[in-house]
Amino acid sequence: MDKVLKDLGNGAVISDVGDDGIQIEVPAGVKIEKPIYLTQLLGKKDKLKIEQGVFIYLREGSEADVVITDRTAVNRPFKVKRDIIADVRKDARLNLYLLQEQGTKSVWLNKMDSYNSGHLTLGIFCLGGASITNSLLLDMCAEGATADVSGMTIASGTQQVTNAVTVTHRAPRCRDRELFKQILDEEAVGRFEGLVQVNPHCPGADSQQTSRNICLSRTARAYAQPQLIIDTDDVRCSHGATVGQLDEEALFYLQQRGIPRHEARLLLLSAFLNEVVDKVSIDGLRERLRMMADARLRGDLNHCVACGSCGTFGAIDN
User: Fold this and answer.
1) Which residues share a beta bridge with 90?
2) Virtual torsion, Cα 310, 314, 316, 318, nearest 10 deg
């Protein structure tokens, strides 16, 4: 029998389902007013290899905000594999955010399967780790379902970050948006792999994939591979990707107005990320992400406002 860890009220519960699994279930028509935070902080007493699951079930017309945060209190070679299943029923609304603040030796694999008949917002924010892979399979399985998927990556040193998103339209008039932005320095590697497939007999599909990348060094690498497979008529689908450097004209413009080059760089990089951060619906989380991104860009994440023990990271701003 599942062990109830927390009663959220009106029949909504967080349960321990065994084998390092957590389940969140929200009955039909129930709105969870406060965000649900699932925070994992790994220390020197924790196993180096961990497998776990997070299962989220939102019934018809329900709503919930869920924040999954991964941190490491010591810089050890943790290897974590997590399976996430999100079942969002008709007219339900799930806002799900993944915050990744691991040390420079950590390897993380998040595999997410989402069955979306309602409205899904997913934000992935990668601020650390040696190798991070986020793999999302999103099944748009009811007419009128919507999904807004976004990601922000700030990486330096030899970090490698991959975000792979596959969206399948299995019903008419579904809408999805993917927006991923990366800032890469030193020898960091960032990848976006996107695939949108519109099945036959699914007219009215509306899809847009966007990947934007800034490389701050000659040795940083950004790879973007957005793809579309369209097997029906009457669709509106597009994709685009850019890889470049910081805009020198904008930098010169700010310096001409008395802003030091160091601060001008930070302003431009923060502005580049704001489009992703602004999508976060939780006010406190949105402001925390701004502070964390600013600290990461300054190379001061080891002195962050969260716990001060995230390890040593390379500085983006030189």
Assistant:
1) none
2) 130
Indicate the residue type of 147.
A
**pLDDT tens digits, one per residue of 133-161:** 999 999 999 999 999 999 999 999 999 99
- Which residues partner with 195 through β-bridges? 166, 227
| 8 A C-beta contact, residue 66 and residue 35 | yes
Distance from C-alpha of 155 to C-alpha of 316, rounded to nearest angstrom: 8
CA angle (21, 127, 83) in 5-degree steps: 20
Residue 81: how many other CB atoms lie within 10 Å: 15
Please, how many CA atoms are within 13 Å of residue 196, restricted to the half-sphere of its CB?
27
Lowest mean pLDDT among 124-133, 219-228, 243-252: 243-252
Radius of gyration of the chain (CA): 20
**What is the spatial distance between Cα 124 and Cα 133, in angstroms, rounded to a whole number?**
11
